[in-house]
Amino acid sequence: SGLDDERKEFVDVIEKSSENLLGLINNILDLSKIESSKTELDEAIFSPIEEFENAITVYSAKAAEKQIDLQCYLDPSLVYPLKGDITKIKEVLINLLSNAVKFTQKNGTIDVQIKRSNTQSKGLVSLYFCVKDSGIGIAPEKQVGIFDAFSQADSTITRKYGGTGLGLTISSRFVEMLGGSLQVKSEIGEGSAFSFTLEFAEIPTPQAVQTAGLYKGFACALLTKKENSGKTHISYMYDYLNYFGVEVKFYTNFQELRNHIYKSGVTLIIADYALLSKEEIEEYKKIHLPVLLIIDHSNHNLQEKLKDNYITPVFKPLVPTKLTKWLSSCKASSPNLKLQPSSFIGDSMAGHFDAHVLVAEDNEINQKLIRRTLEDLGLKITSVVNGQLAVEAYKKGSFDLIFMDIAMPIMDGVEATKKILEYEKENNLPHTPIIAITANALKGDRERFMQEGLDEYVTKPVKREHIQAILSQFLYEKAVSAPKIKPTPKSRLATIEAKLKTDLEIRPIPDVKIDSKSVLIFKKNSIETKIFT
Fold first, then answer.
1. How many CB atoms within 10 Å of residue 524?
2. Considering its fold, how many domains does the chain have in total?
3. Better-predicted residue by pLDDT, 285 or 23
């Protein structure tokens, strides 16, 4: 049954308390593992912009609750996958953002920057991370021990804001493990800035789209209060648009924009909802040009109301993915506009591979998805459904790479890998790279697989960009020019769609009912499991 306001408030309090307790237990467990040297790096290939955006947008709604302006700049040139412990990096970012939201007053600002920095290391990319807020700040004498366990700048802070002081300790230790150093700059009443720099292996992939100058030919009107208003989300938008090749024209009010719009050659408009009246929003619809309307989470109920054929509302902060998605849709709806042709960073490296790959995967749907991706990249595929067949196929054939599912019937992927390695050694054969495919993404999995003899791993569901990164890493000598592909006939597409639909319908999705009691029981069980493990 539904809850009245009073009961709902009690449930919210219980839920928040359980979340706080679970967070405290997690922090204590993390710290105890660090201090006992049981925490290991778990490196994996990841998409930097996607992963960093996910970490930042987690706190966008919480920032909006306090009417805090959360803005961020993610370097749009980070189109290649990187290799590193993304789980720990995201935990550091989330800890820093959590503190920034906690200690920043209403109507304050939080500024996140992640961008390239200079490095002398060949083959590596160096990234600078900074989370800056306009909060209460930290006195100079308190900054010395700010990264010590259970330390906060003042005991009154614990009473007023809560927390244990473990977040910064864990973040500092994680950054050290990753090869960096967490730094702090702060002044009382002015806010704080936490920053660090890390190096990553950058993995070029043939299909990575070069976004620099990709939308040259578009002219965008930016409606803002001031052209030079410091590093706000408007100036970050200018940086993004400039990188993408879009010409930017600044306007300080709607009247000025309307008077010059057709003479100026503007093809797109970006405006902050907070700067517009309802009448002006209606006027935008009459201009018949694509409009990106930026709204904050406090106006979440307006998103569907504002959306129409010309207006696309998006939540703050405006991150590269949201902007490129909108620009791509504008490009698709403007076929007569002469734009810069799409280019691939890896044109010289090619997008296809002349190689033979063995895929050992017992799940039929997963096998089809992997096969389709590999075939699209020009590879010859041999598929088997268990480890024993994988060993037999390896002995009979000649393969350049093996994708090995870990959990398979008859013989699992780890045992099959050991037998293949033994066969290589006995017959003095060159090593064939073996890539683990696993549904698990637990800490330490990668190290365990490496110790068993596997060369790398990808998690399910397997993403195309991860496969491309693996192929570029292990089969770079097999890269060839991509052939011209004939469009798939409509009849064939219909057959494929019908087959995929049938495959997906094999596994019906059950109805799930969630109530407050179930949520609280789940949280209670989670806490008990954490305590007694």
1. 14
2. 3
3. 285
**Element containing residue 467 per DSSP (H, E):** helix 464-474
pTM: 0.62
Distance in angstroms (rounded) separating the CA atoms of residues 239 and 32? 42
CA–CA separation, 120 vs 126, rounded Å? Answer: 9
Cα→Cα distances 304→24, 308, 309, Å:
38, 8, 12
Distance CA 113, CA 195 (A): 9
pLDDT digits (tens, 9 = 90+) for 5-19: 657 656 765 765 565
Q: Give Cα 153 to chain centroid, integer Å.
A: 32
Residues 218, 307: one domain? yes
Query: Which pairing describes strands 268-272 and 291-295: parallel, antiparallel, or unpaired?
Result: parallel
In-domain check, residue 390 = yes
- 4 domain-assigned: no
Question: Do β-strands 219-223 and 209-210 pair in parallel, antiparallel, or remain unpaired?
Answer: unpaired
Residues 341-378 have pLDDT tens digits of 444 444 333 457 889 999 999 988 888 889 988 988 88
Q: Which tokens go with 502?
A: 């049938």
Q: What is the pLDDT of residues 482-530, one digit of tens each?
A: 444 444 444 444 444 444 444 444 444 344 344 444 444 444 555 545 4
Do 373 and 320 sit in the same domain of this protein?
Answer: no
Q: Which residues contact 112 (CB under 8 A, 6 or more apart)?
A: 56, 70, 71, 72, 73, 93, 97, 130, 131, 132, 317
Residue 97's CATH number: 3.30.565.10
